[in-house]
Amino acid sequence: MLKLDTQLAAPTGRAAKVFSAHAGRPAYTIHRVIYRQQTFSGEGTRFSLGYNARRGALFIVDEASMVARGGGGLFGSGLLLDDLVQFVYAGGGCRLLLVGDTAQLPPVGEEESPALSVACLRGYGLEAEDMELTEVVRQSEDSDVLAGATRLRRLLAAGSEELPRVCGDARGEVRFLPGGELIEALVGAYTDYGTQEVIVVTRSNKRANIYNQGIRARIFDREEELTRGDLVMAVKNNYYWTEQLQREMAAEEPGAVCPLPFIANGDCAEVVRVRGVHEQHGFRFAEATLRFADYGDAELTCRVLLDTLASESPSLTAEQNRALYESVLADYADVPSKRERLKRVREDAYYNAVQIKYAYAVTCHKAQGGQWSRVFVDQGYLTPEMAGAPYLRWLYTAFTRTTDRLYLVNWPEEQREAPADDTAGEEEA
After folding, report:
1. Residue 1 pLDDT > 50
2. Spatial distance between the Cα atoms of 201 and 232, rounded to a whole number of angstroms
3. Where in 18-108 does DSSP place strands (E)?
């Protein structure tokens, strides 16, 4: 084995955790590896590009198809791939290995994944080469999921503009599921695997909201907006509450380390308790204790923002963020120093409330980088005009989220292929 100094990273917290589990060693988000907290402004905490002091290190980035050119205005130059390349090669003799699937969804707003494009990487002046890996890890070689994914890859490579046909079997890994049998199948999956290993993948936040509300009401019989046992997902990075927990732990036991470095966008948690639901600054909040299964069931008590639970936007909109900021800032109008006022806002629990959504159903972009035992895919209404590369990438990404079984919900007949004696829907899911 080569004894190299290596750093493992991935674009999201969920992808980093999956990478870490497979590698048997810690992996972190790209943002955590390359950026350092700098200053606070009205838009939030800014992060500057850090200094790479390592020498001869190999930086391995998994799920590189998700690495965008843009990375958000609060981080470095705002260009994530640019900053990643600059950071790595600022270290003496450091190298970068980008690992990803070219058939998966590219970053939002882009037609291809720039981090997996040799031409794009050479544009940085790098000596870039590519290599295709063919050994399958997530599924077995005779997997129906693998066969379907391989077909989708071929159609994508061929530039197909037709809706693909998918092979399913009532007793196989890929199963067509009528909508009338969905609740029963979900109940069985939750019973056998728990909520953490089951996911519904949809094409929009609006559709995910419908599923989340339906699952909570019809399967878990939950009427409150947020209650014990709910599965939620953080939809924006949050550093505040883990820093509070770290201070508390260090005060009780010097040298103690918080098991959560920060709450990452995409982190899932189970609600342990909820209290103190109230309205403030024009938004609704609650005090909640969250249990993070991916961090050894670590528990964290924090303030959560309830308005994002059923929002059709990925998180608070820019307008909502600005409104929250202005309202919190107004609370400190009596503080004479502008610098001190900004510090107070930065340390305000309302301003730092964790933005969450229900996590029973998510968009494909949110699911990207994760894996589940039972995956239910609902592509919604689709016309022939919607076919083509973007749809094929979406379906391929959704298809490959499972480690065990895939259900295609309300799949149209014209997109099905099945054995002549197929009895899809007759067997109990």
Report:
1. no
2. 15
3. 28-29, 35-41, 44-49, 58-61, 95-98
